[in-house]
Amino acid sequence: MYRIILASGSPRRKEIMNQMGIGFETVPSYVNEDIKESDPSKLVEALASVKAKEVAGRFADERENLIIIGADTVVYHKGQVLGKPKDRDDAIRMLNGLSGDIHDVYTGVAIIIRRNKSDNADINGEESIVFNVRTRVSVKLLSKEEIEDYVDSGEPYDKAGAYAIQGEFGIYIKEIQGDYYNVVGFPIARIYEELLKKGINIKKIKKGIA
């Protein structure tokens, strides 16, 4: 049996894991996220990796079988990577740019599988899986009032691109192409598939301490 560690403090990622009935623990990572990389797919993979590795380091002495999952999400629009807005003006600027246009959401995921060397598993030791998922999102043309009202709701401030598709901003989404959960910040279907390839069904790991 594996113990799953979610290397994130994101309430959205935690909620998705809970919705899927998977047992896990949250251990937020504390890393410098200032990585210089203009390619959004490489950026999110790099950030997810440093998060997973930082948390994995805290479990170096554990003798259990572990799955440590790190993730990072950015919005990419017209050659610019959009992270979380710094303030109200920054949120308004981001949403003005996304209004009436199409953008991409990238989430990078890093999974560290650590098998106890004293265990009877076929493969012992540690291995990593790193990937990214892209979803294309179309936003309706927003008025100045709609943008300001949304920003003043407080919802955008801890969200990449200054919006939450699962929140009040969902009413402004015209269309998405790809994984909805990827836009939320956690492509759980791809995570499930990647672990199945390694012979691990995380649906069999029932709810524990979250």
Automatic annotation (TrEMBL):
Belongs to the Maf family. YhdE subfamily. PANTHER family: BIFUNCTIONAL DTTP/UTP PYROPHOSPHATASE/METHYLTRANSFERASE PROTEIN-RELATED, BIFUNCTIONAL DTTP_UTP PYROPHOSPHATASE_METHYLTRANSFERASE PROTEIN-RELATED. Coiled coil: none annotated. It is found in: Cytoplasm. The record marks R12, T73, Q166 as: Important for substrate specificity. One of its GO terms (biological process) is nucleotide metabolic process. Its main location: cytoplasm. This is dTTP/UTP pyrophosphatase. Nucleoside triphosphate pyrophosphatase that hydrolyzes dTTP and UTP. May have a dual role in cell division arrest and in preventing the incorporation of modified nucleotides into cellular nucleic acids. Its EC number is 3.6.1.9. It catalyses: dTTP + H2O = dTMP + diphosphate + H(+); UTP + H2O = UMP + diphosphate + H(+). Its cofactor is a divalent metal cation. GO terms for cellular component: cytoplasm. GO terms for molecular function: dTTP diphosphatase activity; UTP diphosphatase activity. Keywords: Cytoplasm, Hydrolase, Nucleotide metabolism. InterPro entries: ITPase-like_fam, Maf-like. HAMAP family: Maf. The keyword Translocase does not apply. The active site is at D72.
